[in-house]
Design brief:
Blueprint (H helix, E strand, L loop, with lengths): L7 H36 L4 H7 L6 H24 L6 H24 L5
Length: about 120
């Protein structure tokens, strides 16, 4: 399938490892930023309770449910497309594209639902 001599299972392992490294680096950057923010708040003698009252939990169960539901719908549609409309595209690729597309749509919907109503 690939002329460069890379086997598909090696490519899948490499992609999984790369994905884990990216997730770890994103978490580390967020953790470092939060620690730096706390240090600045301590230096400026800022009351942390004021900040926590105004901050709301933007990633709640409703958003998670919408995203998971949209991903599941994408998985079902991907499987139906694969079974009913065979093509020369790899079967797994259609499934993955459908899942990510519907997960993205779910994230957009969850963001719209979560926005506060402005009067």
């Amino acid at each position: 399938m690939i002329d460069a001599g890379i086997r598909m299972d090696n490519l899948a392992i490499f992609m999984a490892m790369l994905f884990m490294i990216i997730i770890y680096l994103a978490w580390m950057v967020k953790y470092k930023a939060k620690a730096k923010e706390r240090l600045l708040m301590i230096e400026k003698d800022f009351d942390e309770n004021k900040l926590l009252k105004n901050k709301k939990n933007s990633f709640n169960l409703l958003k998670t449910g919408i995203i998971l539901l949209a991903s599941s719908i994408g998985a079902i549609i991907g499987l139906l497309l694969d079974v009913n409309f065979p093509s020369e595209i790899d079967e797994n690729m259609i499934f993955v594209i459908a899942v990510f597309m519907f997960a993205g749509i779910g994230m957009i919907i969850a963001n719209k639902v979560d926005k506060p109503k402005e009067d």
